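Good morning N.,

You mentioned wanting to compare the apo and holo forms, so I went ahead and generated the holo version with guanosine-5'-diphosphate. This is what I fed in:
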Amino acid sequence: MPNHPTSPPIVAIATATGRGGVGVVRASGSFAAIDALAQAICGRTLTPRHAHYGAFLDEHHQPIDHGLALYFNAPHSYTGEHVLELQGHGGPVVMQLLLRRCLSVGAAHGMRLAAAGEFTERAFLNDKIDLAQAEAIADLIEASTEAAAKSAVRSLSGEFSSRIHTLVDKVVHLRMLVEATLDFPEEEIDFLQKADAFGQLDRIQAELAGVLSTAKQGALLRDGVNVVLVGQPNVGKSSLLNALSGQDVAIVTPIAGTTRDTVTQSVQIDGVPLNIIDTAGLRDTDDVVEKIGIERTWAAVEKADVVLHLIDATQAEQERLGDTSLLKALDEKIPSGAPRLTLINKSDLLEQSAVNDDSRMYISAKTGEGLDPLRARLLFIVGFEKTASDVFIARERHLTALRHADEHIQTAYAHALTQDQKLDLFAEELRLAQEQLNQITGAFTSDDLLGVIFSSFCIGK
Ligand code: GDP
Ligand code: ZN
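and this is what came out, ligand included:
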């Protein structure tokens, strides 16, 4: 049965706004509230998990629409409460009429519009899914590439959670041993040896490192990578954006200073979403509009994960670098740790072929020469190495928790290694590591965190 019998019944349009063949209004709540809807709108009490075809009635018993009604009894439903789904025709007016009808019938039971993510939040509160799975539902809906969607399904089916549970079990096992020993101080001395504590710690650390590396890949798939193109006017930034995206999204002209605003295009390489950002050419200018464009370039550079600095292969070496004060400014804006790669563009105009090295690559945005090696290098730079089929989706929040857990395990190790083996501190660090891991699945969370997570969902989910 639901853990929160006092929460009011909720209702929302569950399908996307706009027109579609089918639209769904979904309600969740107590049996009394849901049965009242069924009786008033479908004219009878519904059998659980049966599709009932018929009219959806208004307050004058006139049909609003004809469609399928599905009733799921608690706890065998998405939310774990009693749920009614009315599948009508997917027009905005029909959906609004059905929604209003539900609200007016349900008013007697306190029914209200669902907040963003509230159905999923109830599923979490009623133990239908854990927090990592709830997040995976939002990530599946938001997924921008096929690989991101597949990895979200993997998290949703519990692969990520089960790796976390395994880790927690191992930490708890060791913690129990340490705490039991604390009660018998005379045995502390050879406890660590007997229990193979170091072996256990080693295995926990190895497992943590494995989960962290997969989660990092999952976070890449979810969040994408910001790749910012910078360089002087006319070096071919807009041409490169178009070549990488396979469409003409940025204006290409031989007139310097054409791109005055940043243009962003999402492309994918092996399923990793990249946001490629074309910027205004960097040069000293008095043109007011162009100055604003350059300001926006700096703003984009500050949020870059990777900076691609384009130069023109046909320019002489000194010319290529351009304005030294702008170059210095560029260096200062690039976030620390964001890799930067120099691309020598227009290689098609060079007489002899040139050789790439770690920091420079030759490309031609015009002929496409060198673009495949560039794509491969980008994946390497952002650290994507897994084949997408091994990855479960993850968020920055999960990475932080995993890193903190690892720090606590390391500190635990340090306590165990000291001469007088501080077992109480050792146990405490294990407890803190466990707490961090539990935050991922939501076994240990604050209401604030739940609010942040579920409010980012769409309404009706
Ligand atoms: P941006 O100002 O850096 O965005 O440069 P554009 O992409 O607008 O390109 C400026 C000019 O260089 C245009 O006339 C392009 O056709 C030309 N161009 C860009 N890339 C190449 C290239 O790889 N080879 C050659 N030959 N011309 C290029
Ligand atoms: Zn441009």
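The chain has a mean pLDDT of 88.

Happy to go through it together on a call whenever suits you.

Best,
F.
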